[in-house]
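#dry-run=false #mode=assembly
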Amino acid sequence: MTAVFEFWLVTYKRVWRGSALSTFVLPLLTVLGFGLGVGDYVDGGVGGVPYLDWIVPGLIASTVMQVAMFESTWPVLSNFNWVRTYEGQAATPVRLDDILGGNLAYVVFRALTGAVAFLLVALPFGALHSWWALTVLPVSLLLAFAFAAPVFAYSSSVTSDSYLALLFRFAVIPMSLFAGVFFPVESLPVGLRWLAYASPLWHGVDLSRAATLGAPPEWSIPGHLLYLALWAAGGYAIARVRFKKRLVI
Amino acid sequence: MANTQPLIQARGLVKRFGDFTAVDGIDVDVRPGEAFGFLGPNGAGKSSTMRMIGCVSPPTGGTLRILGKDPTRDGPAIRARLGVCPQLDNLDPELTVQENLTTYARYFGIPRRVARERAAELLDFVQLAERAGSKVEPLSGGMKRRLTIARALVNEPDIVLLDEPTTGLDPQARHLVWERLFRLKQQGVTLVLTTHYMDEAEQLCDRLVVMDGGRIVAEGSPRELIERHSTREVVELRFVAESQEDFAGKLGGLGERLEVLPDRILLYVGAGDTAVADVHARGLAPASVLVRRSSLEDVFLHLTGRTLVD
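#status=ok
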């Protein structure tokens, strides 16, 4: 698995300059735009916390989701159909779990770099209230896995990339907007709240927010962790079946 | 040599996809150091057979032993000793030529330093040393294919599997690939290849099987196959007429076999010049006459038919 992970790191080395810039610039712009810009109109912050500080953990979780989702969609389709990287790997002693696990590990790594960059950008704004903020990293790791694994399963099942765009339209965008990133889920009508609570993103947001603000989360920590772990494990199991069907035929 | 254990041994090997039988009970023995070819039209089952040998496709029936091991149980151990050059290149276009080799070497657990050394040697071997640092994307088809072959050699394999190694290459590129493969063969590497190019099979293969509809329809060296399934020479006669058929009847008894094509008639004979003289003696005046040696292509078309397979 390390050899596969290593391969992906080498591919990353070729693009990291460009991606590193956007990894830092995008959080900075979001923090400035939403945190300071929109925050200016939010009187008294949210629950006694300045809007900027309240929104940063949500933005971190949402960034983790977006990186994880992106890296698990078009690249996976390409690894099967266009560049056919997996086919090349399958011809070597590397096993199915190495191919899938090594690629997933890389996606999680990429999402983590996004979280780290965001923490660094948020630090000078005083948005991190506690050393607990560091626990955002393991939370992001789990969150990235919880998104990437099921999306690997999805991307390895669809026949054309137009299905991938659907995923962004009907999952990523609604989650970014309504899963507690920009405003508390309690502001939603009761019927819609459950959709937000069911989304993996909300669990990541609540945990991250508890971490950076050094305050207790809205829901139980073990509950959050278990829920995300379920998405990760379930996604991995399905992705493994899909990968096997496509690579061992 | 006759007692040497075969590197690949298949008995009654079957591969089915649902109702479709791609490989229908074939027996194959590939001996160490030989270049073995699977010939056949599209859909004959060549690639399915190669995938089973490459341990990425479990057989549906029969037995298969590669390097004395069972691919369903010892897949990774067998794959560690195979080099695979797939039909379509699956190199990483974003990585450099060298990185494509070194990252691939890591899949075989080869230490980084050794991987770099081996990459340099192999790039020399396939004449890509001066392109080591360039990306793969802008390389020509021939260069990519040579790089794929180099990548297949990175683990110093016992068997190299080549699925249509020169399909889509221009003549210069094909000859360079053949020359490199021939050199590998001289070094004692066992080559297993599929092709539908007869010249490729004649150039490279010590022994080959002709597949059609998932079965083996002939087996032997290129020379043996020609001797067994065709005549020594072929006379190609072209008549200026509405239909070549009109003349076919007048050629009865000449040669062992006669084939009427829309544009010409093929006479399969032992001695071409004698047959031509006989044609003229019967008062026939073909517009053009060509006497040539029988080729593997004649055998192939005879065994697998001229019907187009799409």
